[in-house]
Amino acid sequence: MTRTLSILGATGSIGASTLDLIRRNRGQWRVVALTANGNAAELARLAREFGAEVAVVADEAALPALREALAGSETEAAGGAQALVEAAARPADVTLAAIVGCAGLAPTMAAIKQGGTIALANKEALVSAGEVMTAAVTKHGATLLPVDSEHNAIFQCLAGNDSAEVRCITLTASGGPFREWPMEQIAAATPAQAVKHPNWDMGAKISVDSATMMNKGLELIEAFHLFPVGLERLRILVHPQSVVHSMVEYRDGSTLAQLGPSDMRVPIASVLAWPQRMDTPCAPLDLAAIGTLRFEAPDELRFPATRLAREAAQSGGSAPAVLNAANEIAVAAFLAGRIGFTHIAAQVERSLANPLPPPPAALEEVLMVDREARARAEELLEKL
Question: Are 92 and 203 part of one and the same domain?
Fold first, then answer.
């Protein structure tokens, strides 16, 4: 049976991996909407290939180029934030939410209100608006499936088991490219070094987050909302090989782990086919060749981001949204050469030390907290 699919963030690495799987199973899917930030040429190419109903660029300045590239096709072209929300609101069996950062929050919420299945690859949306988003999922009868390899691994290990049976959930982390670097060398790290992840092919922002370990901190908050076992039952373990993607320990002493190659097509295939399975072109694991699996405790002295994220989750309210916004501003500043690598976490900590806005109770309030936190983070950067 043909199913319908929308991809919010079609030109990024997650979108590309998803479309690779759809390309291999064309008869099973019909594409409704594809969106991108500003890459009109690539978006138009994909829209033509997959016969999308609508293609949307978030950057309205790219809309004329998109319209020109789609001229003569049956795909509708649109641009701007509101067009992004309207595209996400179109009925689809599955909506892949892969827009990086808080920019993906409003479109993801629009998709949730349709009551379909949301394949969530945007961790920042759930971090900033955890209570608001989960309440909307319940209200509209939507299904939220995690795409992040760690959360997808947890989802598979839980496999419908009661959360009361869980003793501990462990999110694994590669440790990033600077895992074994001394502090002095980490302080002098360049953007070019930070974006070279040892195991995964990812965008610049998420690669920097992996290098600081903030990515794992955000995932900790995301797991707190996705899997209601309590913050005290969530832990992080560094696993440099990225073979074990996460683990669930049950109260009887059994620990279930999900293993797989470092290829995002594995968790994406899991959510696309759920509750069944689908073929992927990924090579099977050769455990004999891998030989030994390594694990180690995270070093929160050199990489304080996970501590900051846990503290923000404990504080609740607007703290996670402030953490996320301040981190996005700091990472952008680092990539632009405005601050050093170790200043990223330091700037986030300074933002959290300021008086926090009241807890947001609706999407508009979350976006207001996000705007205010970004403005304050920019002010702190100017002082620095």
Answer: no
pLDDT tens-digit profile of 45-60?
Answer: 999 999 999 999 999 9
**Burial annotation 290-309 (CB, 10 A radius, 16+ → b, else e):** eeeeeeeebeeebbbbbbbb
Reduced to 3 DSSP states, what percent helix, strand and coil does the chain have, rounded to the nearest 5?
A: 50, 15, 35
Mean pLDDT of the chain: 94
CATH code at position 189: 1.10.1740.10
Sign of CA dihedral 145, 151, 156, 159: negative
Q: Which domain holds residue 117?
A: 3-146
Whether residues 38 and 176 share a domain: the answer is no
Give a yes or no: residue 51 inside a domain. yes
- Is 331's pLDDT higher than 80? yes
Q: How confident is the model at residue 200 (pLDDT cuts 50, 70, 90)?
A: low
What the block records as the tokens of 341 is: 């690598």
Mean pLDDT of 296-317: 96
Q: Could you say which of 146, 173, 206 is where a domain stops?
A: 146
Q: Are residues 133 and 156 in the same domain?
A: no
How far is Cα 95 from Cα 258, in angstroms, rounded to an integer?
Answer: 24
